[in-house]
Amino acid sequence: MRAVALPLVVLIGAAYEVVLLFTPLLAPYRFPIPYAVPVFDTPFVLAAVAVAYLCLKRHRLHADRRSAVLGPVCWLAALLGLAHILTQPDYPGTPGVNPGIAPYFFFLSYLAAFVGAGLALRAPAGRLALSERARFWVGVGFLALGLLLALVVPEIRPVLPSLVMRPGRLTPFAIAAGGIVNGLAALGALWAGRRVLAGREADPFARCLVLATLIWLFGLAGFLIHPFRYGVSWYVAGFARPVGLGVILLGLARAQETRRGAS
After folding, report:
1. Residues near 19 by beta carbon (within 8 Å), at least 6 away in sequence
2. What integer pLDDT is reported at residue 263 of this predicted model?
3. Which of 262, 252, 257 is CA-nearest to residue 53?
4. pLDDT tier at 258, thresholds 50, 70, 90
5. What element of type H or E holds 164?
């Protein structure tokens, strides 16, 4: 089962992109569900917090570098996902919010996921001992970074080209900028996980990081191909993030089982 997971995700993802690129099969469908963003962003936030917590527990036990890198970045991703919920322009609790703000946090949450996976895959083997005080200040630092982004994004939005236009679709600037920045981060993560792609990596944690990166990449690429709010690709891109984090949670659990079996 482990051996077929990666090729299966690649096959399904490639077929999905081909359908979006070359057929109108999914294009006509729109599903304007009330509170759709919290439906897929709340699981993303909770899953990101869960991964961050498990990475903290794993680092306390083993002081491994991958946990030390991935945990704080997932904490940041959770904050960005929460910001994406709170900046939706059409909800009763957020009157007057500019509709151009939320897409920044959507793309930033994807970027945090790609960067976290890439850094964790690139982290060299070995221990990285941190005291509880150091872990606390790392968490505070990433919390401060999340709050800084939440304050900066509304300020820089007016000086940048708009990310959205009527009738609820991404602008060419958003597609290009979001695609290039996130695409480079995703390719960097996949390059860091090339041993997994070549079948030479035994660590289940690393395998699941690569698998999650592919899920995120296919989800985001589909939305950039068909960039309409409430479209099928929009929902797939939204749900791809918590699904990818769920895969990482599975990888953390399997890695812990492997360590117990070896000890």
Report:
1. 25, 26
2. 53
3. 252
4. low
5. strand 164-165
CATH topology of domain 2-12+37-262: Rhopdopsin 7-helix transmembrane proteins (1.20.1070)
Ranges of each domain in the chain: 2-12+37-262
Report how far residue 244's alpha carbon sits from residue 249's, in angstroms, rounded to the nearest whole number. Answer: 9
Q: Is 214 helix (H, G, I), strand (E, B) or coil?
A: helix
Is the model's pLDDT at 253 over the cut of 90?
no
Tell me the pTM. Answer: 0.92
Q: What is the share, in percent, of the chain residues with pLDDT greater than 70?
A: 95
Sign of CA pseudo-dihedral 169, 172, 178, 184? positive
In which band, very low, low, confident or very high, does the pLDDT at 5 lie, cut at 50, 70 and 90? confident
- Reported as type and span, the H/E element at residue 170 is strand 169-170
Q: How many helices (H) and strands (E) does the chain have?
A: 9, 2
pLDDT at position 237, please? 96
Within 8 A by CB and 6+ apart from 129, the residues are 63
- Amino acid residing at 218: F
3-state secondary structure of 228: strand
